[in-house]
Each structure stands twice: as C-alpha cells, then as structure tokens.
Specification:
metalloendopeptidase activity, 8% strand, metal ion binding, protease, metal-binding, four-stranded mixed beta sheet, zinc
C-alpha cells in the first residue's frame, strides 16, 4: 500500500469503510456509504490539510495529558490509491508510532471541515484510549478460550486451530461497539477544543448505513453515536 504523507502537516498521527471482520491489530474501521465521489478537489485537499494542522497539536496535547508514557507522535497519511471505498482508520507502525490514515474517497466525501475534524478526532481517540492493545487482548483471550474448549473435547489440531481463529475474531468484536462510543466521546472533546463543531461533524454518520444493534456487530447504531456526541458536547 502506497502512502503519501502530507508535507504541510506536523508529524502527528487515525476509522471509515469495510464490512469485513476487524483484525486484532487495529480497531474496527468506521463504515461509510458505498460509491460516491472518490477523488477530492484541490479545495478539498487544502481544507483537509488545514484541518490536520489545527487538529494535530490538540490531539497530541490530549494524548500526552491522558495517556502518560504513550507514543503521542501522531503521523497523518493519505492513501492515494484510486477507486477505493471511503476509509479512515488508526493503526501503529512497526516502531509503535500512531498512524491516522485517510484515503482520497473519504476526503472527497466529507462535506465540510467539521466532518473532517470529527473523524480525525475520533481516530486519534482510538489511540489515546489504547483500543488496539485492548482489542488484541480480547482476541487472544477468545482464541485461548475457544481453542481450549475444542482441545478438551478431543478435537484434532486442525479443528483446534479453526476454533482459535473463530475465538480471536469473536474476542476482537466483543467490545468493538464500546470502543467506537468511547472514541466518539473523546473525539468530541478533541474536535471541540480544536475549534470545530463536533455535532455538525458527527453528521458524517448520515452518509453511512446504519448498522443497527446487531449481535457481535462492529459498530453501534448511528442514533446512539449521535446521542453520545450531543451529550458530551453539551457537557463541555
């Protein structure tokens, strides 16, 4: 995967797109609508760059204040591959540096700077809240539990391995919706402190399919997410 680091952005480091099961190595990506505009205009890229420059120092300060000892040297990158569905997510590089990644389709679909800022705040909140490490722990616990049950029943090595894979997937999803709401809440704080309107920014949810409240779903209902944003915003 080819990334373009925005040259005009500080070395700061962010969830939008697929419906596949989340990898234990990163929080579940935020889902967006199917096919829309996939190539941002020059004005949209400039707006994205301005939002990044504004959001980066606020996210870093919040990270250092809330998570002592955590790497808060965020790096924001843009995936420039054409024809991809809108996507944004937070991950870590090999050295543990937090990466906030956004692709061109996401930048093109965001309708204003508040939506750009809110998703950026949401992604940085995943890192500050330690969701990757917590998701890995849940996946490991699920793999051990289901694999152990399979072993006790006398299953063969192939069946045990499959049970471990299933357990890891279930474990990774167990608290996924809670993680999203936590990121929405902290993302609201970061967004507002950077001077943007988080309630207006969270309207980005109206562009994505409502996942409802499915068992082992990766995302909470859109209405619940909006309730969280409004509640936290009103408390600030």
């Amino acid at each position: 995967m080819r990334w373009i680091a925005l040259a005009c952005i500080f070395a700061l480091t962010g969830c939008v797109a697929t419906t596949q099961a989340p990898s234990p190595s990163k929080p579940a990506p935020t889902r967006t609508a199917a096919k829309k505009q996939t190539v941002p205009t020059t004005a949209q890229m400039q707006s994205f760059s301005r939002v990044v420059r504004t959001m980066e120092p606020v996210a870093e300060r919040e990270c250092r204040r809330r998570a002592k000892g955590l790497n808060c040297d965020f790096k924001i990158v843009v995936d420039d591959r054409p024809g991809q569905p809108a996507n944004a997510f937070q991950t870590l590089d090999r050295s543990g540096r937090p990466i906030l990644a956004f692709n061109l389709a996401f930048i093109a679909q965001a309708r204003n700077r508040h939506e750009l800022a809110f998703v950026m705040g949401h992604e940085s909140a995943h890192h500050i809240s330690g969701h990757i490490a917590r998701q890995r722990q849940n996946a490991t616990a699920g793999a051990i539990l289901l694999g152990g049950i399979a072993a006790i029943t006398g299953a063969g090595s192939g069946t045990i391995s499959s049970a471990q894979d299933i357990g890891a997937a279930v474990g990774a999803r167990t608290y996924s919706k809670d993680f999203e709401l936590e990121a929405d809440a902290l993302g609201t704080i970061i967004t507002k402190r950077a001077g943007y309107n988080p309630v207006k920014g969270a309207q980005f949810f109206t562009q994505i399919p409502d996942p409802g409240d499915r068992f082992l779903g990766t995302h909470p209902p859109n209405a619940k997410r909006m309730e969280t944003v409004i509640r936290v915003n009103n408390s600030l």
